[in-house]
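Lay summary. Proteins are chains of building blocks that fold into shapes, and those shapes determine what they do. In this project we predict the shape from the chain. Here is one chain we studied, written as its sequence of building blocks.
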Amino acid sequence: KGINAPIKRHSMASWIKSQDPSVCCLQEIHLTCKDIHRLKIKEWSKIYQANGKGKAEIAILVSDKTDLNQKDQKRQEHYTTVKCLIQQEELTILNIYLPNAGVPRFIKQVLDTFTETDSHTIIFGDFNTPLTILDRSSRQKINKSIQKLNIALDQVDPIDIYRTLHAKTTEYTFFSSPCSTYSKIDHIIRSKTLLSKCKITEI
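And here is the predicted shape, written in a compact code that computers can read:
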């Protein structure tokens, strides 16, 4: 699990170098706090991680090419957020990883905390839950807790950017062997005010 194995870290570093993103958000890295230096990649010296029970579960990596001026950082067991200026534009990056239990309630709490006061928020994360019927290959009905989560999302500023731009597309990020089903449980949630700046999103 995670990126403890050198071959996984090499694969991650190769992907980052080939894609050349400005920011990279990682979840379920399962590194101990003392091993967080293993995330270091040439020309990627800025690392913001969240620690849980002795392990760094998630991290935000920022390219040295990116003009980032950090204003604030908050860390909890399952998420870390960096409030900053990127290329002189105000932005809050929230990277989140959640276990299976109580996901909708926890996500709603996080959204209430960050998005009501910040219209420049982008949330990257492994939510461990689909948000729509299209996010499951089984087309299983969305339960009440996820319905409540979607109602909360409708009432605040953020939207699911992938589902907004691909309203009828069925792409998945997770396969359950016991159930033989695919799901999209990884999401990018961003402020509606930033929607016009999004050119491409894909799985």
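What the prediction tells us: The helical segments are 6-19, 103-114, 144-155, 161-165.
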